[in-house]
Specification:
Strand content: 25-35%
Oligomer: single chain
Shape: globular
Helix content: 25-40%
Number of domains: 2
CATH architecture of the largest domain: Alpha-Beta Complex
CATH class of the largest domain: Alpha Beta
Order of helices and strands: EHEEEEHEEEHHEEHEEEHEE
Strand order of the largest sheet: 2-6-1-7-8
Number of strands: 15
Distance between the termini: 24 Å
Radius of gyration: 21 Å
Structural class: alpha/beta
CATH topology of the largest domain: Aldehyde Oxidoreductase, domain 3
Number of helices: 6
Length: about 290
């Protein structure tokens, strides 16, 4: 899934409308508005562009329950709930959407389109426009092709299940590498890791590893993903997912996949602890 944020002091809803309309011609789009966007909408109501409104437009659905869904016989669902973060929403979208568009106040770690002169706190600026009407939407869509996709373990598992050979598969094995705060009790706590890579070389090497693993007998689908940019302590870094006929092939291929990814894919890592920071080329701390 490609994820992007829209930030600005005004005009973000109009810009989000334009981008969602454009992306919907290419695939499935998830949309969410955060508190702090120019319309003041919150992230704890998740909608799918409803064409039919529930009683009081979803307000009160979760007055007593922590989460609630309104499902009309025909039409689109509406949900409401409590304590849902933007990461939770994006993780849900990643399983079923091709794109996610976040109307934000500028504090989301996503590639961001900025409307007006607002400064953003997180994420890289993908494009700027003085107003929503001046936004070159097509250029933003084109720029998304060069952005790292937003992946989760769940989205990768969903993807391998779509294999044409899924009916022959009796096993799905996974590996998740995460940022470890400490390796030993007396270590300085790690605050975050920052990853950079040679984009074309890394992508080609990842594709080669995946193709070679999928050529094994009994292995039907392999998914590999390594995040770049800042990954904070406790967050996931890298995923390997294998769809195979039996557990033996699945487990062996997952182990070989992560070992080859660590050894062969050109990645640079900066580790930032509470007292120091340093770069390393290999030996990712997962």
């Amino acid at each position: 899934m490609y994820a992007i944020a829209i930030a600005g002091r005004s005009g973000t809803t109009e810009a989000t409308d334009l981008l969602v309309e454009h992306l919907a011609q290419r695939g499935t789009v998830g949309r969410v508005s955060l508190d702090g966007a120019d319309q003041g909408e919150t992230a704890n109501t998740d909608t799918a562009n409803p064409t039919q409104e529930p009683p009081d437009a979803g307000r009160g659905l979760a007055d007593s329950a922590d989460r609630a869904y309104w499902l009309p016989e025909e039409g689109n669902w509406v949900a409401a709930g409590k304590s849902l973060s933007i990461d939770d929403v994006l993780d849900r979208f990643a399983r079923t959407c091709d794109y996610a568009v976040v109307e934000s106040g500028g504090a989301v770690r996503l590639p961001t389109v900025v409307i007006g002169d607002r400064e953003i706190e997180e994420g890289e600026v993908l494009a700027r426009a003085p107003s929503a009407g001046a936004l070159d939407v097509q250029s933003v869509v084109d720029a998304l092709a060069d952005v790292d996709q937003y992946e989760t373990l769940g989205s990768l598992v969903s993807r391998v299940k779509e294999s044409a050979d899924e009916e022959f598969a009796g096993a799905i094995a996974t590996f998740t590498g995460r940022v470890r705060a400490k390796e030993h009790e007396n270590d300085d706590p790690t605050e975050y890791l920052e990853f950079e890579r040679y984009d074309s070389v890394a992508a080609e090497k990842m594709a080669t590893i995946r193709e070679e693993l999928e050529s094994r007998d009994g292995v039907y689908e392999v998914a590999l993903h390594h995040r770049t940019g800042v990954v904070e302590a406790g967050e996931d870094i890298v995923f390997v997912v294998v769809l195979a006929g039996h557990r033996t092939e699945a487990f062996r291929t997952v182990e070989d996949g992560i070992n080859r990814l660590k050894e062969e894919v050109p990645l640079f890592k900066k580790e930032v602890t509470v007292n120091d920071e340093f770069w390393a080329h290999t030996g990712q701390r997962e």
